[in-house]
Amino acid sequence: MHERIEGWLRKARAITVLTGAGISTDSGIPDFRGPQGVWTQNPEAQRLFTLDAYLADPRVRQQAWLFRRDHPAWHARPNAGHYALVDLERAGKLLAIVTQNIDELHQRAGSSPDRVIELHGTIFWVECLSCWRRTPMRDVLARVEAGEPDPECLHCGGIQKAATISFGQALRPEVLEAAYQAARECDLFLAVGTSLQVQPAASLCQVAVDHGARLVVINAEPTPYDVIADAVIREPISAVLPKLVAVATGA
Ligand SMILES: [Zn+2]
C-alpha cells in the first residue's frame, strides 16, 4: 500500500465509509452494474424496481415479491470487508457507514445500527405506500407463500413494497441529511465497492472533499469520482479493507 494512504489512515480521527454492492459480492449478493450484475444480465429486471411500473402493474408486484423471497440476503453472511468496518468502529475511528446496500450485512457483522445510514432502505421491512405502516418482510412473505400473490396492507388495504428506494422514489430527507452530515464532518472518506453512478449517493464524495476530507475510492471499475480522489485502489475489497483498517487502528 502507498505510504501516503497509510499516513492518512493513521492520522484520521473520523472516517466515513460509503459502501455499495461491491462490498457484498463476496457474500454472494450480485451487484447491479458490474459484468455479472443484475441489470447487465437482465435489463428487464429494472422494471421491478421502478415505482411507476410497480404501482401500475400487479404482475410487476407479483414478480417483485418472488424476487424478495428469493433474494440472497436471506442467507448471506458478512465477509471480511464488513467485519473490518466493525473493527474500525471499535477503535473509535468510524464516524458512519453510509450504505447503498439493502442487505443489512453491516449490522449483522456487528456494526452499531445507529452508525449505519441505509440510504436505500432495507429489504427486511415492508412499507405500505398509502399509510406507511411497516411490517417485517418475513411476515408478508409468509402470506405470499400461503397463496396471496400481492399482499395488501392489513391496516388500510394499500399497495405494499419493500422498504427500499425504487427508481422514481425520493430518498428519505432525514436519512439523506444524516449522510451529508457524515460526509461533511469526516476527515477521511472511503468510497468502497460503489460505481458512484447513482445520485445523490455519489455526490457525498464531492461534499466530503469540499469540506476538507481526503477521498479514497476502492472499486474494481473506474468511477466518475476517481478524478477528484486523493487515491484510487483497485484491489478486491474483502482483501484490501482489512489491511486499510489494520493500518488505521494500528493493529
Ligand atoms: Zn396501509
Describe this structure in words.
The chain is of the alpha/beta class. The chain folds into two domains: 1-29 and 78-120 and 170-251, TPP-binding domain (Rossmann fold); 32-75 and 122-164, SIR2/SIRT2 'Small Domain' (2-Layer Sandwich). Helices cover 36% and strands 17% of the residues. It is built from ten helices and nine strands. It has helices at residues 3-11, 38-41, 51-56, 58-69, 80-90, 105-109, 137-145, 173-185, 203-210, 237-249, and strands at 15-19, 94-99, 116-118, 121-128, 134-136, 160-164, 188-192, 214-218, 231-233. The strands form two sheets. A six-stranded parallel sheet has the order 3-2-1-7-8-9, sandwiched between helices. A three-stranded antiparallel sheet has the order 5-4-6. Helix 9 (203-210) links the parallel strand 7 and strand 8 (214-218). It is elongated and about 60 Å long. The model has no long low-confidence stretch (mean pLDDT 94). Bound molecules: zinc ion (ZN).
